[in-house]
Amino acid sequence: MTTEPLTYRGGHGDPLVLVHGLMGRGTTWVRQLPWLTRLGAVYTYDAPWHRGRDVADPHPISTERFVEDLGHAVEGIGTAVRLIGHSMGGLHSWCLAAQRPELVSALVVEDMAPDFRGRTTGPWEPWLLTLPVEFGSARAVTDIFGDVAGRYFLEAFDRTATGWRLHGHVERWVHIAAEWGRRDYWEQWRAVQAPVLLVEAGNSVAPVGQMSLMHQTGHQASYRLVPGAGHLVHDDAPEEYRRAVQEFLTTFADRA
């Protein structure tokens, strides 16, 4: 069984591709679509191991596999795109821009850093591995994840006749995150030539100072810190996120 990785969400003009984070899905961008579709033709992307619990990917889990898949999806649009990536999606977006610069004209990277080495998934693995496969009510999801993240996961999970079902396997999601504790992605970051907006949460998951260092070392990087926002900046501080992204994309378009 396979699914299409890209879904057209509306708008016209230069394409924008929205790339979700770990345990996310393209459907989680629903609140950003009204204003993003005024800035171009918007597509959401579903990454491997996030396309449904019964959708398999035959390849070993690796950053390279994610970047290859994203590249194939973007290639199908037929022109260079602007990538808007959250967390894991930001990492894979800048790796694609480094590897295949002809596919990426600009980037937004939200709350992600190049080096998590030594940070293991151990502290939260037991909790994740006890998650039920299906939740019987929306309240059950928000009780576990909180209001902001809970709404996000309700939009990501598969809707069933009896509730909300995980759209992937927790063991694989843990495996994906574990790779980040063993390697870094500074080389790929330094290779990016496209304009980049870095958006960091005030309550960031990124190691302290890394996104600021990305700003200093990026070829065409700008930086916005959003005080008080959590990791899901686009949902936790939507107006600040919208202003930052609109300003960046408009400025980039004026210079292009």
Q: Would you count the extended β strands for me?
A: 10
User: What's the architecture in CATH terms?
Assistant: 3-Layer(aba) Sandwich
Number of helices: 11
* Adjacency order of strands in the biggest sheet: 1-3-2-4-5-9-10
How helix-rich are the residues, as a percent range? Answer: 25-40%
Uncertain runs are none
Radius of gyration: 17 Å
Shape: globular
Major beta-sheet overview: 7 strands, mixed
Query: What oligomerization state is this entry in?
Result: single chain
Strand content: 15-25%
* Helix-strand topology string: EEHEHEHEHEHHEEHHEHEHH
Tell me, what is the CATH class? Alpha Beta
CATH superfamily: Alpha/Beta hydrolase fold, catalytic domain
Structure class: alpha/beta
Q: Report the mean per-residue pLDDT as an integer.
A: 95
How many angstroms does the end-to-end distance come to? Answer: 41 Å
What is the CATH topology descriptor? Rossmann fold
